[in-house]
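Sequence, please.
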């Protein structure tokens, strides 16, 4: 059965948590009422939603939270229009608001504790207490930054910067934040969003606090790192299945990039917004944002423009536009990537290479109704050595879909099983959603052993 996180994040006050739990119970009861009204049992409804019966049962009593696509399918199956999905949206908005309020309250409490600790410091033990204070400030502003990697001088410098940003927040701190962000990116690729998200949010908190007090000469550089952190947080939430939070952090990334005059990052965020639209299969939004990302005003490096071109190719393929138009965009992407030596930037899309473009080309063929060609490209270019573990799992799920559409059910089931294992290990809801799509595509081969095993693992049948 697909693993679904009940809530991303946490830390709400008990009263708020109880209120949200009541709303979740009410939504579950409404689902049960609608199900019974049309004569479905939980066992009958479950396969129509792509989820296990136990999930339906848990949702109906408010014990489990599921993504929006579950409610959309229930609306479709039960004939309730957008009612259930709309109530789910209201619930998620409340959860997001309560989470933000709880985070602000927790931050205020930490600030208060730090203030009280400093007030108790005496001149006789200033040096010892300062060290404790530095660690407390780091814990408050830069959660889980991996302090063992810092030298004592680094620790003192970062702590001083957080205490007195105007005086101490300099390029050394900016470089440190950049290194930490790169470390987080590596953790995400290996272990998924859950391992990287706390550190990234801590970085954002430290940057957001410091940018108001930092010297003007350093502010733009700090905003640039903040924009990268916010965009990365958007990606982590996207992979976690928290669509609204992903959108929120991409918007913050754009805001900081604009505030810092970082044109390159503004164009890059537009591309990332286009890519997020793929998860919803929103071809028109993909095209609009990819085209906007290609504007010369952003001064994007060749590899980013290559990625935008393939994004447009996929959008055109999804809309059923001419094959020639799709090929022109793909040819443009390949040409730009070959000529990427013109780019000097190391800040955006540093890992965009030929192997990824080949996989994205397969995705274009797949949505264009040419699954045999897509499956062939996946077989040739999809290797664990070419991608991070998390990315390999995601692309394996897409390769499985291509194989299913190409009438290769055993290959599809094998790839989907690999993707499912990686999705579970990395907590990638995005990959898990794609695996469920594959299971549905394999319905007509349900009697085949490999497909039957896949269904048993993914849907808990």
């Amino acid at each position: 059965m697909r693993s679904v996180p009940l809530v991303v994040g946490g830390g709400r006050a008990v009263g708020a948590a109880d209120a949200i739990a009541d709303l979740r119970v009410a939504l579950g009861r409404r689902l049960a009422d609608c199900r019974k009204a049309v004569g479905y049992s939980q066992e009958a409804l479950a396969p129509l939603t792509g989820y296990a019966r136990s999930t339906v049962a848990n949702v109906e009593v408010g014990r489990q939270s599921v993504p929006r696509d579950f409610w959309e399918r229930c609306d479709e199956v039960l004939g309730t229009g957008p009612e259930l999905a709309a109530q789910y949206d209201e619930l998620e908005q409340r959860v997001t608001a309560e989470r933000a309020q709880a985070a602000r309250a927790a931050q205020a409490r930490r600030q208060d504790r730090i203030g009280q600790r400093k007030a108790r410091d005496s001149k006789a033990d200033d040096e010892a207490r300062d060290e404790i204070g530095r660690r407390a400030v780091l814990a408050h502003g830069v959660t889980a930054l991996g302090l063992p990697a810092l030298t004592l001088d680094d620790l003192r410098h970062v702590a001083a910067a957080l205490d007195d940003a105007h005086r101490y927040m300099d390029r050394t701190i900016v470089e440190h934040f950049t290194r930490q962000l790169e470390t987080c990116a590596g953790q995400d690729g290996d272990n998924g969003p859950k391992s990287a998200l706390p550190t990234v949010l801590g970085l954002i908190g430290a940057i957001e606090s410091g940018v108001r007090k930092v010297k003007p000469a350093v502010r733009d550089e700090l905003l640039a790192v903040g924009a990268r952190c916010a965009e990365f947080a958007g990606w982590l939430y996207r992979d976690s299945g928290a669509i609204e939070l992903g959108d929120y952090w991409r918007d913050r990334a754009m805001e900081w990039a604009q505030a810092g005059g970082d044109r390159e990052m503004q164009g890059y965020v537009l591309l990332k917004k286009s890519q997020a639209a793929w998860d919803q299969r929103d071809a028109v939004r993909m095209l609009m944002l990819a085209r906007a990302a290609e504007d010369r005003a952003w001064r994007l490096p060749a590899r980013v423009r290559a990625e935008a071109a393939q994004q447009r190719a996929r959008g055109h393929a999804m809309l059923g536009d001419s094959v020639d138009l799709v090929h022109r965009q793909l040819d443009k992407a390949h040409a730009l990537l070959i000529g990427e030596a013109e780019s000097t930037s190391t800040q955006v899309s540093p890992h965009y290479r030929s192997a990824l473009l080949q996989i994205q080309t397969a995705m274009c063929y797949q949505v264009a109704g040419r699954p045999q060609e897509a499956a062939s490209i996946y077989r040739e270019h999809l290797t664990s050595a070419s991608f991070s573990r998390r990315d390999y799992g995601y692309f394996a799920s897409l390769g499985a879909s291509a194989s299913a559409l190409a009438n290769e059910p055993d290959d599809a089931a094998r790839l989907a099983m690999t993707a499912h294992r990686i999705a579970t290990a990395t907590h990638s809801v995005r990959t898990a959603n794609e695996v469920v799509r594959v299971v549905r595509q394999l319905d007509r081969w349900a009697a085949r052993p490999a497909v039957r095993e896949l269904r048993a693992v993914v849907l808990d049948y």
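Confidence is low (pLDDT under 50) at residues 1-14, 128-152, 154-158.
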